[in-house]
From TrEMBL:
PROSITE patterns: C_TYPE_LECTIN_2. Residues 106-220 form the C-type lectin domain. It comes from the Eukaryota. It comes from Panagrellus redivivus. This is C-type lectin domain-containing protein. InterPro entries: C-type_lectin-like (IPR001304), C-type_lectin-like/link_sf (IPR016186), CTDL_fold (IPR016187).
Length: 245
């Protein structure tokens, strides 16, 4: 967990990604303090990342010197045996009821499926145009996927569409203009690729975009038909509110 912080603007902007939106009732933070709070509660759980839930408190087995290094606004204290932090009652919500909210070990998110945008790609790419579309409509990104549970939930949204002709773009992008390896991919939101559901396919195809196949939930990265893209799914962090218990 983050402690004993020294603020250097350029370094902190690089190492602390501002994607978690955490508000703790009774605290008004900005700047580096807000970033620290977001990092401490990145999993958006009742306790800071790595701490143990014990009834109405959270505990961490460290010595007193280490405990005293945590930022004072976190209300962390030493009880003579371990470090103690308040347990939080966590609620999260999306911008409107048109989004679907889900919670996973890496955080709480809101998802929304949109029909394919209209217009000409021009000098851009299909995935960049779609990612910009997501950002314009939701302030988020084309969805990244980091677990089987998240993949299944997103595919459920696709299969709930009242459409017989499906094909939904997600934010997985090849590092090369042709698919040379299933290892050469990244997510447009900057998160790591530590879960994959890419279907087995030959390499050498021109990369246009990644589609989630409705029937299986697998990710197709070798589509050469631009018309196979009918929908896109956007993902944005939920607004998380924590109330000390």
């Amino acid at each position: 967990m983050v402690r004993s912080v020294t603020f250097e603007s350029n370094q902190c902007q690089y190492y602390l990604k501002k994607f978690t939106n955490v508000t703790v009732v009774g605290r008004s933070l900005d700047g580096i303090d807000a970033l620290i709070q977001n990092a401490v509660y990145a999993s958006q759980s009742a306790c800071p990342n790595g701490w143990t839930v014990e009834n109405s408190i959270c505990t961490l087995n460290v010595d007193e010197t280490t405990c005293n290094e945590y930022a004072s606004f976190l209300n962390i204290t030493w009880d003579g045996t371990s470090c103690v932090a308040p347990k939080m009652n966590v609620t999260y919500k999306c911008a409107s009821s048109s989004y679907t909210a889900r919670n996973y070990p890496d955080g709480s998110y809101c998802y929304r499926v949109f029909p394919r945008w209209s217009g000409v790609v021009g000098n851009s790419t299909y995935y960049d145009m779609s990612n910009t579309y997501c950002n314009t409509l939701t302030k988020g990104y084309l969805a990244s996927i980091h677990s089987e549970a998240e993949n299944n939930d997103i595919n459920t949204l696709q299969n709930a569409l009242n459409a017989t002709d499906k094909g939904m773009m997600i934010g997985l992008v090849s590092t090369t203009s042709t698919v040379t390896s299933t290892d050469n991919f990244y997510w447009l939101d900057g998160t790591g690729v530590y879960y994959s559901n890419i279907e087995a396919a030959g390499t050498g195809s021109q990369f246009l975009f990644t589609l989630m196949t409705a029937s299986t939930g697998k990710w197709s990265t070798t589509s050469t038909d631009q018309n196979s893209f009918k929908y896109l799914v956007c993902k944005v962090s939920a607004k998380v509110t924590m109330t000390p218990m």
